[in-house]
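Box 3.1 A note on notation
Throughout this textbook, protein chains are presented in two layers. The first layer is the amino acid sequence; the second is a token string describing backbone geometry. Keep the layers aligned when reading.
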Amino acid sequence: MVLRIKRRLLTGLISFGFVLPLLACGTPTATEDATTLPPLQVGAIPDQDPEKVQRLYEILATYLSETLGVPVTFQPVTDYTAAVIAFKVGDLDLVWFGGLTGVQARLQVPGAEAIAQRDIDAQFHSVFIANANSGLGEITSLEGLAVLKGHSLTFGSEASTSGRLMPQHFLQQGGVTLEDFKGEPGFSGNHDATIKLVEAGTYEVGALNEQVWLSRVEEGAVDLDRVQVIWRTPPYYDYHWVINPQVRDRYGEDFIERVQAAILALDPAVPEHREILDLFSAEKFIETQNSNYDDIEAIGRAIGKIQ
């Protein structure tokens, strides 16, 4: 209860332009009054239910503000493209991107860096799910994806790595094109919506982020009598934090390193940190770098999502 009260007080202070004392090395000096600093603007692709996204990033913003000693504000965006544009024009400084959107954003902002990812993001997977009435069963190989021909399919967002880019890539490797499906593939907008559409039978098949699927199953939010996983993709790099180089001018030359250290310092043994990690479906964050997403860039260009 005390922790919740402290969080509420902190959020209120930040919203009125106040900040905590600057504690870490490399923060502005006394001649650089912290109350005059603009807030660090944090954003994320809206890949899940908006309420879940809002809760996660409000808690994270509080942690970053306390750790970095600067005001931090979470700025929600309407869709994946809006997140990339906001990063490009400088309205967002630090963004949780998927593999594809992270590449798209970095290509438009010279000097932007991928600084951290979850432990699961170096070996990430998508899943294909099917409605129980589709007649589809388990698929055990890329070649087996041919059984999806003639069925209806929905992806997530058009710019989703786990909900569109990599599923489409693996379909192509299995000899299946988008023209092979019944009607045009749908785009649900996010992974939660994909589950609901397939569960309801609106589409027979859906492709989505494996971690969202597992989380919703654990929560009891999926009717497993109506929808099941039929295939799990090979692994690939996916979600990661990308930071805009302009933050160095605003908060100091070492600020990117400090942000990275704050994210990597999240410790599952600390209850407050555990809450953040659980909401991210992660045990910890690890370092990453731009070159880890070279394959994503190549696939994005091949599919036409990167020009």
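Residues 2-17+25-121+237-303 form a domain with the D-Maltodextrin-Binding Protein; domain 2 fold (CATH 3.40.190.10). DSSP finds eleven helices and eleven strands in the chain.
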